[in-house]
Amino acid sequence: MGEAIVITSGKGGVGKTTSTANLGTALALQGKKVCLIDTDIGLRNLDVILGLENRIIYDLIDVLEGRCKIHQALVKDKRFEDKLFLLPAAQTADKNDVNPEQMKELIEGMKADYDFIIIDCPAGIEQGYKNAVAGADRAIVITTPEISAVRDADRIIGLLELEENLEAPKLIINRIRPHLMEAGDALDVNEITTHLSIDLLGIVPDDERVISSSNKGEPVVMDPSNPAALGYRNIARRLLGESVPLMTMDKPKPGMFGKLKSIFSSK
Amino acid sequence: MKAQVTGFLKNIVNIKGTNKGLLIQLNDMASYTEILDELKKKVSDPALEGDAEVQIQLAKRHYSTGQLEEIKKVIHEHSKMKVISTKCDVVTVEECNRMIAERQSETYVGIVRSGQVVKAKGDLVVIGDVNQNGRIEAGGNVYVLGRLKGFAHAGASGNKEAVIAASWLEATHLKIADELETMTDELDSLSEQPEMECAYLHTSGKIIIDRLQELRFLRPQISTFKGGS
């Protein structure tokens, strides 16, 4: 019996979709059977980041409205044998065309076939959010070291904590820029976790190649030498129950900056 | 037999001079119309000159708000006197319940996050942080064992004596009774390390922040312990 995880943030543009794609891929790399569900109906992106745009035939709405069977709508990622699947969102409908009960039923029915079902939540706290959260067993909140993102994360955590069927939400801090944190120009990891007071699942450094790989349709996590990929791989291992120490990037030791620089400039 | 009047009060309406102005005592055994007639007669007396301030003593009788307005109207229309307060020895069950509720304390354990509102009729104790855009509201005092970084409202039902106290007072907004203060950088009362502080409504009508240790001098009535050893 698999586990359904919703990836949410409140604020837009903090990396929900990128994180969904990368965590899903990382779990598939670990040999788990994963299905990603894009619930951002009307503004779908997950398919693009995974490079599966051209293979979509049916979508979430088609499944919910009975125009096709689930297996017909699922897009298989050929890079991972039978490990990674995508249920794309509809582009020609909107968030009000789905209700939480439908989502719950759908996900409940899929759990037996997968180890992980990862639900990509749209930004906001309206219908789209409610649909995305309905079928989930646990939630991951994504934030960046910006006050606005942390404020919205706080709001979304408050809402998630009201959901009776959800485990306590966990936090991912995305797009960390070590030099800004060290200089005190960005919130540091400790400040964010104390403020939100939920468990930290992991941190992901900011890296340009996240963007370039997303544009190519190859999640960055496939490149094991990339620091952001390492962040996502660590998080995936923690989801599987391993205890992995937090990436060291915020220790202002002498000579550390040089080390970091060498890490980040390596290919 | 004439109705037995309580205490020393033999007249239906009694006017007395005190060092704080005039005192009008209304007999609580007389009928309401009798009181109004007698009051009109007494206050119209040209011997009562000047624009004295008067207090009305209602004794053990409940008057409705409309009746009180009528009594004040009689006084204001037939004399230059100004009613500054009314004092009544009885309360309705409704008022009594409200007073009990306001004296009680409720406790919330957890974080008040953005968009959440926690309300209490009486005092409110929050054990945990109140984050930005989180709101706590109490009819009585607000105490936060944690960081108060959001919006706190004390004395929500009008109690100007209510206070807001927190282990870390870094609120964006403070409100006591109807007075709202936005905690902008321009306020000189803000400290760098807002640890163990309290906010109260100063007699000037402004919200002032002080050290928590000052509370026992500022609002001694909050303490429910009498005496000491």
Automatic annotation (TrEMBL), chain A:
Q: Which UniProt keywords apply?
A: ATP-binding, Cell cycle, Cell division, Nucleotide-binding, Septation
Q: Which InterPro entries match?
A: CobQ/CobB/MinD/ParA_Nub-bd_dom (IPR002586), MinD (IPR010223), MinD_FleN (IPR025501), P-loop_NTPase (IPR027417), ParA/MinD_ATPase (IPR050625)
CDD domains xref list: MinD (cd02036)
A GO MF label: ATP binding
Q: Which superkingdom is the protein from?
A: Bacteria
Q: Which residues form the signal peptide?
A: none
What the protein does comes down to:
ATPase required for the correct placement of the division site. Cell division inhibitors MinC and MinD act in concert to form an inhibitor capable of blocking formation of the polar Z ring septums. Rapidly oscillates between the poles of the cell to destabilize FtsZ filaments that have formed before they mature into polar Z rings.
User: Which family does the similarity line name?
Assistant: Belongs to the ParA family. MinD subfamily.
The protein's name in its UniProt record: Septum site-determining protein MinD
Q: Which organism is it from?
A: Planococcus citreus
